[in-house]
């Protein structure tokens, strides 16, 4: 078993690689949003959103959770690896066949006939992912995040370029389909080459039962989480139509970005790291609190700025004609921190083997999202955004409580970890709002308004953080030491 110092070094190295990959990936993602927002219509996005919503839900059962169990389990033998490959492949083929058959029914449910062929085309992503699932999980268990960062960023870049080229050439919603397929084909090939799986079509039932002891709860969590994330899309698409769904998904995609970055940069590293330290309760509590502190320090001020400049963000990223996305974006921006931090709490609980507790929390989350969307859809997409925000706060509270029980973190420690971020957000919002109002009153371009507000917010943020780093309270000394470590590494 690795020592906490060894794990710490691997965590820092893994986060560095994942951060580099995320910077590249999200830089490309912003370019893609800008190009596709101008080349495609909201209806085009709605057609693909319907298909992707179904795919992502089924993606939660792509390996019935045993891939994640490979990472969490303390001891592995070859039978675990070969069984994971076989189960993932069979499920991938099965899900592909299921979607090919059910595509017409799904299209009728959404009342979007154009989505049927798109659903069928994207069905083959499951077979491709099934081939490479065991290899992906083996890389993460080994904490080989250099490989995962390079593969994920590289294949996303190629797929995104393919989408943009096709969109400019007038391919409509099929531009997005081409991008998804190109990315998954390349990704599967790369993972198979970097970490060849234990090729076998035989399932070892004993090893499968061992993996499923964790995998069942993980699968429920994945399915419930995806239904919660995309369940409101079902309601909006069915009740309000593809155009409203396009507006809603544009707003939601923007506020999901920080939590996806956290999961890609930090979460993928922390899960195998926490799994190695799952018996060290005090260490879990320390890292849990520190990451909560860092999240609040960054995400709360960012949320405040996004709420202020939401109109400019929409117009710059996706172009004119998307103003209906502004109010939903502002409502959902309030949930950026809870959405990200609940992922951290779930990682702590799952790494300690408490997958069933998180599964229950996510099931409640799913019910609140879908039930709330059904009730609030009468008020359009702002109503759905409000009910979804409430559901995110609910699952944040539940998952945080579970992680606190596991790690022994006290309520007072959790609260104190958030205080600096709350103070920063309030001061920055107070400074940014009048600046935005003055720049808009001068009829300046959206990019000028955004730039001016961002500059003021950054100056205030840096000044307050620099002042706060002189303190020795809470986790400030840890943050100061980490920043000094980074500066020392760069100076070498």
Which key terms come to mind for this protein?
globular
Strand content: under 5%
Question: Helical region count?
Answer: 19
Cα end-to-end separation = 31 Å
Evaluate the radius of gyration. Answer: 22 Å
Mean pLDDT equals: 83
Shape: globular
Order of helices and strands: HHHHHHHHHHHHHHHHHHH
The tally of domains stands at: 1
Low-confidence parts: none
Description of the molecule:
The protein has 492 residues and is mainly alpha-helical. The protein has one domain (4-491). 85% of the residues lie in helices and 0% in strands. The protein is built from 19 helices and no strands. Helix 2 (42-59) runs antiparallel to helix 9 and helix 15 runs antiparallel to helix 16 (380-407). The chain is globular.
Summarize the structure.
The protein is mostly helical and 492 residues long. It has 19 helices and no strands. Helix 3 (66-72) packs parallel to helix 6 and helix 17 (411-441) packs antiparallel against helix 18.
How are the secondary structure elements laid out?
Elements: H1 4-39, H2 42-59, H3 66-72, H4 78-110, H5 115-122, H6 125-141, H7 145-168, H8 174-194, H9 205-240, H10 242-276, H11 281-308, H12 310-318, H13 326-333, H14 336-351, H15 355-376, H16 380-407, H17 411-441, H18 446-468, H19 476-491
Helix pairs in contact: 1-7, 1-10, 2-4, 2-5, 2-9, 2-10, 3-6, 3-9, 4-5, 4-6, 4-9, 6-8, 7-8, 9-10, 9-15, 10-13, 10-14, 11-13, 11-14, 11-16, 11-17, 12-18, 13-16, 14-15, 14-16, 15-16, 17-18
